[in-house]
Amino acid sequence: MQREAYWFISSFFVLATAYVVWLHHIKPVVTVKSASETQAAISLESISTAEDNFERTHNGCWASSLDELQGVKRAPTGYVFKYSVNYRNDRGCVVSYSVSAVPRVPGQTGDLYYYLDEQGAHLERGKPATAASETF
Q1: Most CB atoms within 10 A, among 14, 67, 112, 127?
Q2: What are phi and psi of 20, to 5 degrees?
Q3: Phi, psi of 72 (to 5 degrees)
Q4: pLDDT in tens, 2-24
């Protein structure tokens, strides 16, 4: 009986130690990645709202850069954002734009890739998102 109790207690301490190691070394990486992905999605939502406001107040034109948008939350450190003007009409008005958000360190700061344009927001896991990607 004592031997079984000793084995049980020893096994418990080994499992508890492994769990503590996991909490301190593995789980924070997952949490940081999830936080970066969430921040990127929030930033895209902020950009989309600012673009809608810009378009309403600028005769149907979208912004030429992120710097023109008011109230945009800046990109989180785990993602890199790229703003592109896809098309201007004959008056120089931006009529098509896109924003991509990619993990700064793929697999570490995020697995999700985001794409935003005047039609909506899209995402992909593990590869760059496009207008044809799943919407969110």
Answers
A1: 112
A2: -65, -45
A3: -80, 130
A4: 555 444 454 444 444 444 444 34
Burial of 2 (0-12, 13-18, 19+ CB in 10 A): exposed
Count Cβ neighbours within 10 Å for each residue of 4-33 and write b for 16 or more, e otherwise.
Answer: eeeeeeeeeeeeeeeeeeeeeeeeeeeeeb
Q: Given the structure tokens 């950009």, which residue do they identify?
A: 47
> DSSP letter string over 81-101?
EEEEEEEE-TTS-EEEEEEEE
Question: Could you tell me if 79 and 36 are in contact, meaning their C-beta atoms sit under 8 angstroms apart?
Answer: yes
More confidently predicted of 70 and 26: 70
β-partners of residue 87 are 96
Asked if the model's pLDDT at residue 33 lies above 70, the reply is yes
Nearest to 69 by CA among 44, 90, 89: 44
The domain total for the chain is: 1
pLDDT digits (tens, 9 = 90+) for 78-104: 999 999 999 999 999 999 999 999 999
